[in-house]
Amino acid sequence: MYSFQPRVRVIQYLRSCKSLSVYTKSIFSDKDGDAIASLLGLFVQTVNENVAELEMIVGTVGDFERTRLLSHSIKGSSANHGAAKLKSIAAELEEACIEENSGKAAELFEEMKHQSQLTVEAVGEYVT
């Protein structure tokens, strides 16, 4: 189970996410801290697992579909959690897979791996 330190920082983080609507930001209160910390912890875990799997398969001949699906997953979860840069790179990687462009996919994966590390570190400031 993840927890956050302090609870108010998680709420402030979510309220500051540009991808969240004003309504969504307004519904978070201190009592939501445990649920929010769990969601952010699950986001970090999922991103780390997907990036690790991508690292094994990017550039593998004929594995564009699995790479596309993992990129799509990262794109969606990043969008839901306000990680706009990671979402954008994942979308580009997904498109490179649709085009079956292995060179571009490999380049974008490296960029996505770096951005995922930055995102995980940023979330880690709020969740332990």
Helix and strand arrangement:
Blueprint: H1 7-16, H2 22-27, H3 33-57, H4 64-81, H5 84-98, H6 102-124
Concise synopsis of the structure shown:
The chain has about 130 residues and is an all-alpha fold.
Any overview of this molecule?
This protein has 128 residues and is mainly alpha-helical. The protein has a single domain, classed as Four Helix Bundle (Hemerythrin (Met), subunit A). It is built from six helices and no strands. The termini are close together.
Please state the CA-atom Rg, rounded to the nearest Å.
16 Å
* Range of helix content: over 70%
SS field, number of helical segments: 6
- How many E-type strands? 0
Q: Mind summarizing the main beta sheet?
A: none
CATH class annotation: Mainly Alpha
What is the string of SSEs from the N terminus onward?
Answer: HHHHHH
Beta-strand percent range = under 5%
Count of spatially separate domains: 1
| CATH topology value | Four Helix Bundle (Hemerythrin (Met), subunit A)
| Class inferred from helices and paired strands | mainly alpha
Q: Kindly report the average pLDDT value.
A: 78
General form = elongated
CATH architecture heading? Up-down Bundle
Distance between the termini: 9 Å
Q: Poorly predicted ranges (pLDDT <50, ≥5 residues)?
A: 1-7, 19-25
